[in-house]
Amino acid sequence: MWQAFTNSELDLAIIYSTRMGQQELKDRLIHTKRGAIIVLCSTSYVAVLSFRNLLLQSQHETPWLIDPLSLLPAWAVAGINLGFCACLIWGLAVLYRLAQGNERVLVGAWVTSFLVGLIKYLASAPAGVFIDYVKALAMLVALLAAVDILFRMPASGYPRLENQTSRNA
């Protein structure tokens, strides 16, 4: 059933998982206090922007990387924007698969905020207000996860695992 773990057991940098009967060591995404502070600052910035959008309800702005009214042809603008979004979604999926524990909560909340933000521009105005609430809630969860990661981080950080498939043997 459920086991109670002490803080020292939870702070281990190595997570054991079983795959094909063998134990595999997994590395962390955030290893140092500096990395945790950077994650906290960037998450705080985006969370504040989400809360501001929720409270001020700004006018419609373009969700695209490149403004559609630029000098490029429409097909080029659409291609660049769709390519950027596809690469970003792929990167977020990879990060989610690599993350573990509170890092997975953090990445999951960022992914939720990003994907819901893309859907906002396809929905009606009342649905857009609801989507703003969902984005703000997702960023609040991400902010709390980032704070938790920072406060649970040991002073020396977590050790990095060496690549076990190295050819230096």
Q: What distinguishing features does this structure have?
A:
single chain, 169 residues, 2 strands, globular, disordered N terminus, disordered C terminus
What does this entry show, briefly?
The chain is mainly alpha-helical and 169 residues long.
Q: How does the SSE layout of this entry go?
A:
Blueprint: H1 7-10, E1 15-19, E2 22-26, H2 33-56, H3 74-98, H4 102-120, H5 125-152
Antiparallel strand pairs: 1-2
Note down, in words, how this protein is organized.
- The chain is mainly alpha-helical and 169 residues long.
- The protein has one domain (7-152).
- The protein contains five helices and two strands, in the order H-E-E-H-H-H-H.
- Helix 2 runs antiparallel to helix 5 (125-152), helix 3 runs antiparallel to helix 4 and helix 4 packs antiparallel against helix 5.
- The longest helix has 28 residues, at 125-152.
- The chain is globular, with a radius of gyration of 20 Å.
- The chain starts with 6 loop residues before the first helix and ends in a 17-residue tail after the last helix.
